[in-house]
Amino acid sequence: MYKVADCKIVDLPKIHNEAGNITVLQNGKDIPFEVKRIYYLYDIPMGSERGGHGHYELQQYIIAASGSFTFILDDGNNTKEVFLNDPSKALHILPGIWREIKNFSSGSICLVMASQIYSEKDYIRNYDDYLNYIK
């Protein structure tokens, strides 16, 4: 089982010139898993929270494509808050970690690259069920 300490901020490649920055991510080179799904959260009302679940197998790279937000990671024993506000950095979340997202700034966009296509069977949506799973 992974711990919150295993979930790290990753510096992404950034190419800079006078016209602005670009970050390019490629499967097998910049991401430690094959990306099979991409989605993003946006237009989140102020004060709203998202997440509130864990995954059995799924890995994710999370990027603040715009604005900022905070991830709260929980492994049943430890928690860690990760503030994201830089599109040249990604949070790598490993399987078996409970996550919640809060403190969305106005206009924020949370970009998620996932290691699997959507499967409801991979979700743990109840925290008590999550605690039973990690035991």
UniProtKB/TrEMBL annotation:
Signal peptide: none annotated. InterPro entries: QdtA_cupin_dom (IPR008894), RmlC-like_jellyroll (IPR014710), RmlC_Cupin_sf (IPR011051). Residues 6-134 form the Sugar 3,4-ketoisomerase QdtA cupin domain. It comes from the Bacteria. It holds the Pfam family FdtA. This is WxcM-like, C-terminal.
